[in-house]
Design brief:
The complex is a heterodimer of chains A (284) and B (339). Chain A is mainly α and 284 residues long. In chain A, 75% of the residues lie in helices and 0% in strands. The chains are: A mainly alpha (284), B mainly alpha (339).
């Protein structure tokens, strides 16, 4: 009896310790996000006080209004959507074909293709940035949306192939065999059987490609020299007013607006995150 | 739908080691990598369809990755500079850019910085990530869900946004971190401390930012691997009188090793390449104190417009990373992943 109770109280203490640690961890890890939102909801005068206000005394949405009306927000949002949308469509369609090839076919050179895809994803940002800049400079693609989409495909395409490969590989081979017995051609097999079955993979890799392109700062910052051509990350990073100093409240509101779609997508695909992200969707 | 849950196991980067044979394997759907059964039907088809399907993606990759890398290597042997950008004229100068670089103290400083800083970031995020993964196994489902959501929020923040938040947290004058540190009374009045103006403090704040955003992926990946671990082995060890620490060291750690190795290699590659956070938080300063190889290459190529030299720098960085990538791919194959 005594031993049981002793063991139980040790377990309870263990639980208590774990839960306290978890609470502390959550507080620390959540703090930056909380502080961003907290600042965004405070009037500028309240954000800059000697003793910080941990809760907005007079909450306001005014900062969001300021951010949305800040130079070029809507134009830059439009640019982002255009470039990101094109990247997602091309990466996912081409990625789907390529993933079908590497996961449902056996052919000589298949492993080489897979290794090449892996290596392509590990390349450092500046390694691609410098030569792409030079080539685009020659080709007149600098400062064009086409150029930006092409540069983003270098990030998103290998990655889409990786993600979708997992989905193709999970389709039981029996389905293919049954279709073949029924006389389906390879073409019908792809379009009628395999492609519809990887639809969840299409959704997942679209989201990953979206995040990769939406978050890019370096390439857009280097390639687009005109404010009207900026994408949202560049807009956000240049969110300062030389005349009155940085308006941190409005900047935090801008950060919330910019982060929101990504956060929503992350929460939506939560369960696939570990497998997907590890393939390099979000690079430093 | 097929492919939702299996992907977690099927994706190579999930790096979850195959469960102990015979234990959980039966409960799992057939491993997607089961090549033997797949090729039965696959060998009916000629390779032409496969190559046809690969062609569009292949052409794009050729244009946006292979050709640029080839051109990068070529440019690193030239004197390409600002003038060349307008006139298109430049000369092949052999290995001069490389010898120039190797004789510059600036290059060696940047290299040392990058290696040390990468090691510090990887060590920090792996240590915390491992702790959080262990913590997750000891929590009830509600608490575990809460921690997971918090992890995802930190993870999801785009680096541009998180860098701006960081600057605000550490802002001299009104930054909340300075205020809190002042309240502790340990470091005197820190209200006006400018973190980006002191080399150690700039490093510290960037290190915190990177670790903050790297921990979620590491913790969740390790937790996924931990939840595949058969509980019986641990229990048997405990019955034999092994303490918690001993159980972790002799049973948990060896079980996690393949995943841990892959996650570490990946973190090395990512952290070596960190750019946005440094660029936005400290811009490589003060006095190039936080100028890592990536920042150095960017400055050389796009601020000083010594493009040839920037290219040489990038080639050196890429070669170093390729070594790590090769190691990573070997580990991937060894962990039973069918490429």
């Amino acid at each position: 009896m005594l031993r049981t109770r002793g063991a139980r109280s040790t377990a309870t203490r263990g639980r208590l310790l774990s839960n306290s640690l978890a609470v502390v961890f959550c507080l620390v890890w959540l703090f930056p996000v909380y502080w961003m939102v907290n600042t965004a909801l405070k009037p500028r005068s309240e954000a800059m006080t000697a003793t910080p206000h941990f809760w907005p005394a007079s909450p306001t949405l005014h900062n969001f209004d300021v951010a949305l009306n800040h130079t070029g927000f809507w134009t830059n949002l439009g640019n982002s959507l255009l470039v990101v949308g094109a990247t997602v469509i091309v990466a996912v369609v081409l990625g789907m074909f390529a993933a079908a090839a590497v996961s449902r076919f056996r052919f000589r050179g298949r492993r080489t293709v897979m290794v090449a895809i892996l290596v392509a994803q590990m390349l450092p940002g500046t390694a691609l940035l410098i030569p792409t800049f030079l080539v685009f400079n020659e080709a007149g693609l600098l400062g064009t949306y086409t150029g930006l989409v092409l540069a983003y495909l270098a990030l998103a395409l290998p990655f889409s192939i990786w993600v979708m490969r997992g989905f193709f590989a999970a389709i039981p081979v029996e389905i293919e065999e049954a279709a073949r017995i029924d006389g389906a051609s390879t073409w019908q097999m792809l379009w009628k059987i395999l492609f519809p079955l990887v639809l969840p993979g299409v959704v997942a890799s679209s989201i990953f490609a979206f995040i990769a392109a939406w978050n890019d700062y370096l390439i857009a910052y280097t390639f687009m020299k005109d404010r009207g051509q900026y994408t949202l990350p560049v807009w956000l990073a240049s969110f300062t007013n030389p005349a009155s100093g940085t308006d941190y409240s409005a900047q935090m509101a801008g950060s919330v607006i910019f982060s929101l779609p990504v956060v929503v997508f992350f929460l939506l695909i939560q369960r696939k995150l570990v497998s997907g992200m590890s393939a390099g969707a979000v690079k430093g | 739908m097929p492919g939702t849950d299996q992907t977690v196991r099927g994706n190579p980067r999930a790096a979850i080691p195959p469960p102990v044979p015979g234990h959980t394997a039966d409960a799992l759907p057939p491993r997607p990598g089961a090549a033997a059964t797949r090729s039965v039907s696959a060998h009916h088809r000629g390779p032409w369809v496969a190559w046809g399907l690969l062609t569009p993606a292949g052409l794009v990759m050729l244009a946006v990755t292979v050709a640029p890398i080839a051109f990068l290597v070529y440019a690193s042997f030239t004197d390409y500079d600002q003038r060349s950008l307008f006139t298109g004229a430049f000369d092949v100068v052999g290995t001069r850019q490389y010898t120039d670089l190797l004789s510059q103290a600036e290059f060696w400083d940047a290299l040392t910085r990058t290696v040390v800083f990468t090691a510090a970031m990887v060590a920090g995020s792996i240590a915390v990530g491992m702790g959080v993964a262990q913590l997750l196994t000891r929590l009830g489902s509600a608490m575990r869900m809460t921690v997971t959501v918090v992890l995802i929020l930190a993870w999801a923040m785009p680096t541009v946004a998180s860098s701006l938040v960081w600057k605000w947290l550490f802002q001299p004058g009104y930054g909340v971190v300075n205020w809190m540190l002042t309240q502790t009374g340990l470091f005197g009045d820190m209200t006006n401390t400018d973190w980006s103006n002191s080399a150690p403090l700039a490093y510290l704040s960037i290190w915190l930012l990177i670790v903050w955003q790297a921990v979620p992926f590491i913790a969740l990946t390790l937790y996924a691997a931990l939840s595949q671990m058969p509980a019986e082995v641990q229990e048997a060890a405990r019955l034999d009188g092994a303490g918690e620490w001993r159980v972790w060291w002799s049973i948990t750690l060896p079980f996690l090793r393949p995943t841990l190795t892959l996650v570490t290699l990946m973190s090395v590659i990512w952290d070596f390449n960190v750019f946005n956070q440094i660029w936005l938080v400290s811009a490589g300063g003060p006095d190039s104190a936080t100028t890592t190889l990536g920042v150095f290459a960017y400055r050389t190529a796009f601020v000083a417009f010594r493009v040839g030299q920037g290219a040489a720098l990038s080639v050196i960085t890429t070669v170093m990373l390729l070594a790590v990538t090769a190691l990573y791919i070997r580990r991937l194959l060894r962990s039973g992943e069918d490429l």
